[in-house]
Automatic annotation (TrEMBL):
Residue span, ATP-grasp domain: 108-315
Residue numbers annotated as active site: E22, S158, S293
Residues annotated for Mg(2+) 1 binding in this entry: D269, E282
Gene designation per UniProt: ddl
Source organism per UniProt: Thermomonospora curvata (strain ATCC 19995 / DSM 43183 / JCM 3096 / KCTC 9072 / NBRC 15933 / NCIMB 10081 / Henssen B9)
Annotated family: Belongs to the D-alanine--D-alanine ligase family.
SUPFAM superfamilies in the cross-refs: Glutathione synthetase ATP-binding domain-like, PreATP-grasp domain
Sites where the protein binds Mg(2+) 2: E282, N284
Molecular function as annotated in GO: ATP binding; D-alanine-D-alanine ligase activity; metal ion binding
Biological role: Cell wall formation.
Upper taxonomic lineage: Bacteria, Bacillati, Actinomycetota, Actinomycetes, Streptosporangiales
Main enzyme class: ligase
Identification of the protein by name: D-alanine--D-alanine ligase
Length: 319
């Protein structure tokens, strides 16, 4: 880990908020990051991604920016492009890597090429259903991928617009719900098994997997409510996986981090089927930091201090 005394941290801006559907979650994440850094006597201030941001960055440049923006702009690389234009150091993946990771079908293709298993899928824009006829297209989807299916926006987070489809008759409604949050749908074969999230941090430039967090939602889906309302989901850390399976899950997260060209931190969502095979679902370049989020749970399970980890990630960007 980087020497905490070189360089010294002065002012840090924690970038949170924005105008995506995940604004409130981002603000909660931002407050927690700022509090964790302040506990180490770092001058950390939360700043929204609004019309005053550029003026602030140019007139009173911080030592670094820690983005915890969720959803579009925060994870699609745009805000990081702006930070690079201004010349302010920031924690996390660079813009090009964000764009690849943000687009779930593209990320699946990249990690598949790197040797990871990922559920068979198809990605369809809503225009296809209008032009070719929804019923005919959905019939082809079911015939090809089978049931059950998992439907989610091709871009987006927090499981907004996502649903499990077990009956063909429920697929049209799932598509309508998906298209409320994006113009393209990723439809993939739903793998039954144990859902886990594996967070990765870089130490001395090398990605290291933290203990896997097992996710046991009260309902069938780990949806937006289950993610952010305390008590709606059981989290088991470390995940209840055989040692060899846990090792493969950790390796999968590190492989995804490297293959996608990510930096500093990430969180990979996986499903482990009954045979113990690990399947890649998606990756997050700006993991949530709320009291119910998975990244802080993994940090705690590793016996690490969240503020210290965040501090070290910032220092690494300044060296």
């Amino acid at each position: 880990m980087a020497d905490l005394n070189v360089p010294e941290l002065g002012h840090v801006i924690v970038l949170a908020g924005g105008l995506s559907y995940e604004r409130e979650v981002s603000l909660r994440s931002g407050r927690r990051v700022a509090d964790a850094l302040r506990a180490l006597d770092v001058d950390a201030q939360v700043h929204d991604a609004d019309a005053t941001l550029l003026q602030t960055l140019q007139q009173a440049p911080p030592d670094a920016v820690f983005p915890v923006l969720h959803g579009s702009m925060g994870e699609d690389g745009a805000i990081r492009d702006v930070l690079e234009l201004v010349g302010v150091p920031y924690v996390g993946a660079r813009p090009d890597a964000c764009r690849v990771a943000w687009d779930k079908p593209t990320a699946k293709s990249v990690v598949r090429a790197a040797g990871l298993a990922t559920p068979p899928s198809v990605t369809l824009p809503k225009e296809v259903f209008h032009d070719l006829g929804a019923a005919a297209v959905l019939e082809c989807v079911v015939r090809r991928l089978g049931l059950p299916l998992f439907v989610k926006p091709a871009r987006g987070g927090s499981a907004l617009g996502a649903s499990v489809v077990r009956e063909a008759g429920d697929l049209p409604a799932a598509m309508v719900g998906c298209f409320a949050y994006g113009d393209a749908a990723l439809i993939e074969r739903h793998i039954e098994g144990t859902e886990v999230a594996v967070s990765v941090i870089e130490r001395d430039g090398e990605p290291v997997a933290l203990p896997a967090v097992e996710i046991v939602p009260a309902g069938e889906l780990y949806d937006y409510t289950a993610r952010y309302d305390a008590g709606d989901t059981e989290f088991v850390t470390p995940a209840r996986l055989p040692e060899e399976v846990a090792r493969r899950a950790a390796e999968a997260a590190v492989t995804a981090h490297r293959a996608l060209g990510l930096r500093d931190l990430s969180r990979t969502d996986l499903i482990v089927d009954e045979a113990g095979q690990v399947h890649f679902l998606e990756v997050n370049v700006a993991p949530g930091m709320t009291e119910t989020s998975l990244f802080p749970r993994a940090v705690a399970a590793a016996g690490l201090n969240l503020g210290r980890i965040l501090h070290d990630l910032i220092v690494a960007r300044l060296r």
